[in-house]
Design goal:
Layout lengths: L1 H10 L12 E2 L2 H10 L7 E5 L5 H9 L2 E6 L5 H7 L6 E5 L7 H5 L7 E6 L5 H11 L3 E9 H8 L9 H9 E9 L4 E2 L6 E8 L10 H13 L5 H8 L6 H10 L13 H10 L3
Parallel strand pairs: 2-3, 2-5, 3-4, 5-6
Antiparallel strand pairs: 1-8, 6-9, 7-9
Length: 280
C-alpha cells in the first residue's frame, strides 16, 4: 500500500501541500481498522473527506453501497481516479467540504445509513466536525482521524484540563468514543504530532432540553472564554447577557452553582439549566 501511494504521487508529480495538511496513510492495517470502526453495511452511503489518492476509498468502496469522495486538491483527482478505476459505486467531487451543501449530498442516499469517514486536515478539524454535526442530522456515524489532543478534548469530562467548549458541543450532538491511536510512522509525510481515530455516534435526541440552542452555545463559549476567571466574571465580561454581575450571581445561586466556580467544572446539564435561566 505504501509503495502504491508513493508510485501514484510520483506518477502524477504530486507535491504534497503543507497548508492543506496533507498526510497520506500508508499502513493497510490502520486503514482496515478505520473502516471497521465505521461499522459499514452494504446498504450504507459514506462521505469520505480528503481521500487523497484513495488508499482508504478503495476499502470503503468494497464494503459500502456508495462512497462520495470529496477532495479539495484538484491535482490529486487523476491519481484518485486511477486508483478507483473499476469501482462503479464511487463518486468523486472536487471541492472544499466547507463549501459543500450537505443536504444535496444527502440526496445520494437511497438506502441504509449515511456515514462520514475522514483523515481530517489537522488545521481545520474543528470547523469541519462542527459543520457536519450542526448542518446534517441525517449522518448517523462519523469516524475521524484527528490530532490526539483534539480527540482527548472531544471526550473530556467536566473538571479536567481538556474539557472545554468543543467537549460540550461534540457531546451535545453525539457520543464520542476514542477508537485507537495511530503512530506518525503510518503516514507520508510523517506528521509532527500523534494521531487518534475517534468515533462519533449521533444522539437520536439531544441530551438536554434547551429553550434557545443559540443562547446555550453562547453561554458555553462565554464560560470558557476566560478560563482563569470565575464563572460569574467570565459571563459578565462577555457582555452578551445584558445582566449586572449581581443578577448573574443570583441566577447562579438559584441553580445551586457556586459563583466562584469556573466554567470547566460545569456539566452539559448545568450549562443547559444556566442558559435556560437567562431567559426566565
Amino acid at each position: 500500500m505504501a509503495e502504491n501511494t508513493r508510485n501514484l504521487i510520483q506518477k502524477y508529480n504530486v507535491r504534497l501541500t503543507k497548508s492543506l495538511g496533507q498526510n497520506f496513510l500508508t499502513d493497510n492495517n490502520i486503514v482496515k481498522k478505520i473502516v471497521d470502526t465505521a461499522e459499514l453495511t452494504d446498504s450504507d452511503t459514506v462521505i469520505e473527506i480528503g481521500p487523497g489518492v484513495g488508499s482508504m476509498t478503495v476499502e470503503l468502496a468494497r464494503q459500502a453501497k456508495k462512497v462520495i469522495a470529496v477532495e479539495i486538491d484538484k491535482r490529486l483527482i487523476p491519481a484518485l481516479s486511477e486508483n478507483l478505476d473499476g469501482f462503479q459505486n464511487v463518486q468523486i467531487i472536487n471541492m472544499d467540504i466547507m463549501d459543500a451543501d450537505l443536504k444535496e449530498l444527502q440526496k445520494e442516499v437511497q438506502t441504509g445509513e449515511l456515514k462520514v469517514v475522514a483523515n481530517l486536515p489537522y488545521y481545520i478539524t474543528t470547523p469541519i466536525i462542527m459543520k457536519l454535526l450542526e448542518e446534517d442530522d441525517s449522518i448517523s456515524l462519523m469516524v475521524f482521524m484527528v490530532q490526539k489532543e483534539v480527540a482527548q478534548r472531544m471526550v473530556a469530562r467536566p473538571g479536567g484540563k481538556d474539557y472545554g467548549a468543543l467537549s460540550v458541543a461534540v457531546q451535545y450532538y453525539s457520543k464520542p468514543e476514542i477508537a485507537f491511536d495511530v503512530s506518525p510512522h503510518c503516514f507520508i509525510p510523517q506528521p509532527d504530532v500523534d494521531s487518534t481515530v475517534i468515533k462519533l455516534k449521533r444522539n437520536e435526541t439531544p441530551p438536554v432540553k434547551l429553550l434557545d440552542k443559540k443562547l446555550f452555545f453562547k453561554t458555553v463559549k462565554a464560560s470558557f472564554g476566560q478560563r482563569r476567571k470565575t464563572l460569574v466574571n467570565a459571563l459578565y465580561n462577555s457582555g452578551i447577557f445584558h445582566k449586572t454581575k449581581e443578577e448573574i450571581k443570583e441566577i447562579l445561586m438559584s441553580l445551586g452553582i457556586d459563583e466562584n466556580i469556573r466554567g470547566e467544572a460545569l456539566s452539559i446539564d448545568q450549562f443547559a439549566e444556566l442558559s435556560n435561566a437567562f431567559l426566565k
